[in-house]
Design goal:
Strand content: under 5%
Structural class: mainly alpha
Number of helices: 17
Distance between the termini: 53 Å
Oligomer: single chain
Helix content: over 70%
Length: 417
């Protein structure tokens, strides 16, 4: 019974990682409940000392990141805001690391269960996004002034960009589950989730979500060497493209305006120009202030006023701009840590899934403000932790098997001939 309660509680809390619109004193509800869950589980869980290895890299990276917060504070124009935002970011990272570690070592969760929870959670957010965009319901869940700014809908995420990445994750997981499901009923269930998620992208209006989803599907099929399926998907895209881009299908949605603007403007597309200008402006500002190339500008709104007053829409540039060389190094280290997950997977199916997820992550990381986006980080971090946990278990099982064989050989050798 306690294990069932722990499983249900962990599942519900994990599901809220995609619901960043719900906050309490600057923290998401996921932050609050995940911290409480981790504390309880650490106290009652029988720890597995050999599994602590899956936390070693995030542990040292987070300490380096903490150092970058302190050093960059020397250059911050608003030190109090820098310290407050850095503290929230540090707590959020450690909360994710510890919560995922608890899930991966509890013995209650598997990768398949984790993927199912994320997929169901993302589908719920997609349903809300459709209700917001199609019927005008639940728009009070996000800032009302946002309606005048973008006419895009985030579902249960905090921003449409985040909703787009969430939709890409969810759609990709739903598609993989549809392909891998053993029964017709399971295939139909996940296919419904896939259709709902893809339709919600009409209202989130995120090109990043659309393109990264398509790229992840292509990469997944190539890694699996599913050439026939790849050809079928390419054919379906060619058939569906005219339908999806038809004004009657898109209606008066923001996605229609964005597609028309992209087709007519190409590289002059306003969003591309705006973000490119912001990124180049951040780089120029660092070059003009050489000291910040080492220490960064700090993490406050005052440092962004000259950059359109918005968070920098590129994770690498943002890390370097705010936290200097050490901050850049820690972000690169996290990305390397995530991509090394591929070496811990022992079959093409798992490798294709992880690679697709990482492709979506990189798309969101390089095109949006990723620091506070739990929805961007949680799934790839779960992949990394569970893959390493399973690898440790396989290694221990092999070592135990060899030890048993050695004991058996020793007993046989002692038998008088």
């Amino acid at each position: 019974m306690p294990e069932l309660i722990a499983f249900l509680a962990g599942s519900m809390i994990l599901g809220t990682a995609f619901f960043s619109t719900f906050k309490l004193a600057g923290f998401t509800i996921f932050d609050v409940f995940a911290l409480a869950y981790s504390l309880v589980m650490v106290c009652v869980l029988r720890s597995k000392p050999n599994q602590i290895i899956i936390l070693q890299v995030p542990f040292w990276i987070s300490f380096a990141l903490l150092g970058s917060f302190v050093i960059s504070g020397l250059q911050a124009k608003d030190l109090s805001e820098h310290l407050a935002k850095s503290a929230v970011l540090m707590i959020a990272y450690w909360n994710m690391f510890i919560f995922i570690y608890v899930l991966a070592t509890s013995g209650l969760f598997s990768k398949e269960i984790i993927y199912s929870i994320f997929c169901l959670s993302g589908t719920m957010s997609s349903i809300v996004c459709i209700l917001q965009g199609q019927f005008g319901k639940y728009t009070y869940l996000f800032k009302t002034e946002a309606l005048d700014l973008w006419d895009r809908f985030p579902g249960l995420a905090e921003h449409p960009v985040e909703a787009g990445i969430l939709g890409a994750y969810t759609g990709f997981l739903a598609l993989v589950k549809t392909i891998d499901a053993k029964t017709l009923s399971a295939k139909c269930f996940w296919m419904v989730a896939l259709v709902i998620t893809l339709y919600s992208m009409k209202f989130s209006g995120s090109f990043t979500g659309m393109f990264t989803f398509a790229g992840a599907v292509g990469v997944m099929l190539v890694v699996r060497r599913a050439w026939v399926a790849l050809a079928v998907v390419a054919g379906l895209l060619m058939l569906l493209a005219p339908i999806v881009s038809n004004p009657d299908f898109l209606g008066d949605s923001f996605m229609r305006e964005r597609i028309n603007a992209l087709l007519s403007g190409g590289t002059n597309y306003e969003t591309v120009q705006t973000r490119s200008s912001q990124v180049s402006g951040a780089i120029d500002k660092m070059i003009n202030h050489p000291l910040t190339l080492l220490f960064g500008f700090g993490y406050s709104y005052a440092d962004l006023v000259s950059l359109q007053g918005l968070d920098i829409h590129n994770g690498i540039v943002s890390a370097y701009f705010h936290f200097g060389l050490l901050g850049l190094a820690t972000n690169i280290a996290i990305i390397v840590y995530l991509f090394r997950t591929l070496s811990f997977e022992d079959n093409r199916k798992d490798q294709s899934l992880v690679l697709g997820i990482l492709l979506i992550f990189i798309g969101g990381y390089l095109t949006g403000p990723a620091f506070f986006r739990r929805a961007v980080w949680m799934l790839p971090l779960c992949c990394a932790a569970f893959a390493r946990s399973e690898a440790v278990e396989r290694k221990n099982e092999q070592a135990q098997l060899l030890e048993e064989e050695a004991h058996d050989s020793e007993r046989v050798a002692r038998i008088p001939q």
